[in-house]
Amino acid sequence: MADIVQLKEDGVAKYLKTHADAIDGIDGKLVKASGNETILGTKNFQDGIQIDGSQVGLVNDACWCEDFAVNNLAAGKVNPDIQRFSTSNAEAFSASGKVITIKKSGVYMMTLGVNYTGLTNWLSFGISRLDGTSLVNRNLLGSSTSGSNSLTYVRSFEGNDELRIEFNSGAAGTTMGKINLAIVKLA
User: Which domain of life is it from (predicted)?
Assistant: First the structure.
């Protein structure tokens, strides 16, 4: 432990309180600016928390399209029209025709769930970019003729990314029902 510095005032020796434990009105320890430590209790940050200049925590930007169907799916690639689209923030997401646009850069989680009936051949479902580049897909090869399945994917986007739901089937006739897509901004 460091020595406490002695100060003389009007010729009288005084001791400065130079250690955090000795500061009047402070219970416990002070938080260090660097290094690892455990901090107990609830801390409410009025101005938010940032890591490398990016806000972290609950962002509250989300979009979803829920409970729509594509009947008698054609063989090959099919991108259905986005139906029943909603968003918590129109400045973050939009939808038009077959395309959902993620307007803001950040890290997003996407979950796509489907029910299917009439599956007689291989079929995959997923999310792709407007240019056809697949981001994530799930193959139903060897699955029963009817059922449900889902996929979840987390990735970063730069902003103004255009995405679409994609089905790719080896045979016509499958019905994709209860299609549900949710996209949530994580950071």
Answer: Bacteria
